Design the sequence.
């Protein structure tokens, strides 16, 4: 039985690609490697993983044209359904691409196709403590609940831009509470305090590449001193272990 993971939020900069890379690593560990696919005119996931490891579903029309006329890409995205039916997949949706892809899924009755094929689905929606990110996440969750009612939906509170205390009594989090009563999972993605976090992103290093580097190599590639490089790798590894612990209960059933 194949399994598919979608990571989405119409707002950019919320940690979608990083979350997908961590998920991909964990699924690799349990012996269920994901066929990685990005639906993004920037192909950010492929920049980190390599174009040979990621199928980038980009069409001739640019993202703005696709949002104006989603039908331009409907037949092209049918390839995504084929990939999902043949193997476990991880789909990273770029900023502003979730709406048009969900519309394609709705028009194509993709949910029914997945059920008939025995394909299970998890939808991860990361948000940062930013009004637009929270709004975009709620919209993605509400739409996916309607289009994929049998899916497992996971809201990821990414603390990279701060904590969510100020949102506790907002209408947005009241909606999230309602969705939790209907089965929504909520997990936390802590901020990584590694001194080289921005350097690792600039260098396009996926998580497993970072933790396999020694301090000397990190120092050479980032310009940090050797002690700072040691701290940077140690803090990154600690953050990654915490993420693995948070995600493990969701991934364990697929082992």
Sequence:
């Amino acid at each position: 039985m194949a399994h598919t993971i979608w990571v989405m939020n119409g707002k950019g900069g919320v940690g979608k690609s990083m979350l997908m890379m961590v998920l991909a690593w964990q699924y690799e560990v349990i012996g269920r490697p994901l066929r990685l696919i990005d639906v993004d005119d920037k192909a950010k996931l492929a920049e980190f993983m390599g174009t040979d490891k990621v199928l980038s579903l980009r069409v001739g029309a640019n993202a703005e044209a696709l949002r104006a006329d989603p039908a331009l890409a409907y037949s092209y995205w049918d390839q995504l359904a084929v990939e999902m039916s043949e193997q476990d997949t991880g789909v990273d949706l770029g900023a502003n691409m979730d709406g048009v892809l969900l519309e394609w899924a709705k028009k194509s009755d993709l949910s029914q196709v997945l059920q008939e094929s025995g394909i299970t689905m998890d939808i991860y929606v990361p948000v940062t403590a930013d009004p637009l990110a929270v709004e975009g996440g709620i919209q993605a969750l509400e739409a996916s609940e309607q289009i994929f009612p049998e899916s497992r939906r996971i809201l990821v509170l990414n603390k990279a831009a701060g904590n969510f205390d100020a949102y506790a009594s907002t209408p947005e989090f009241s909606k999230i509470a309602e969705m939790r009563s209907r089965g929504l999972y909520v997990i936390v993605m802590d901020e990584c305090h590694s001194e080289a976090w921005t350097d690792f992103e600039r260098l396009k290093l996926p998580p497993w590449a970072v933790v396999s580097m020694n301090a000397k190599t990190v120092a050479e590639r980032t310009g940090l001193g050797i002690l700072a490089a040691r701290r940077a790798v140690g803090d990154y590894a600690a953050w990654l272990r915490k993420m693995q612990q948070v995600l493990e209960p969701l991934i364990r059933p697929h082992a």
About this structure: The longest strand covers residues 120-127. The radius of gyration is 18 Å. The longest helix spans residues 226-251.
